[in-house]
Design a protein that fits this description.
alpha+beta; two-stranded antiparallel ribbon; 136 residues
Length: 136
């Protein structure tokens, strides 16, 4: 018999999840608008930064300047490098590297960087708030 996950063990003894987005996940029905979901996420992820830290995970609103590229308007990014112009990171919405590796310039970040705690990552990955677009 497989062992229960930590989350399952905690729930069985009445310990609530410390994920700030758990309530959003619990209410998902599959017909939500990505913009509405992003608004909900940003309202509960209140820890923000203007400059990211390597190794941290953030979500934010992004609008690139480069024409004719496909992008995610609501990325969920593990930051890997920081530069004077912006940062690089792996966007969980794009799948696995190398496809997920993206560059983000500070001038095109349209919101604060909302910090995602490690224990919230799995919940965040289940929320369908990604918004893939073609920059025309």
């Amino acid at each position: 018999m497989p062992r229960k996950t930590l989350k399952e063990r905690q729930q069985s003894i009445g310990i609530k999840s410390s994920s700030r987005v758990n309530n959003i996940v619990a209410r998902l029905i599959g017909k939500e608008n990505s913009r509405d979901l992003m608004d909900e996420i940003l309202s509960v992820l209140t820890e923000t930064a203007d400059i990211p830290e390597i190794g941290n995970i953030y979500t934010f609103v992004y609008s690139p300047k480069t024409p004719n590229i496909q992008y995610d308007q609501h990325p969920l990014v593990l930051v890997t490098d920081i530069f004077s112009w912006g940062f690089k990171g792996s966007n969980f919405h794009w799948g696995n590297p190398p496809r997920s590796m993206r560059q983000y310039t500070f001038d095109e970040v349209q919101s604060p960087l909302h910090f995602v705690r490690r224990n919230e990552l799995e919940d965040m990955k289940t929320i369908p708030y990604q918004s893939f677009k073609l920059n025309t």
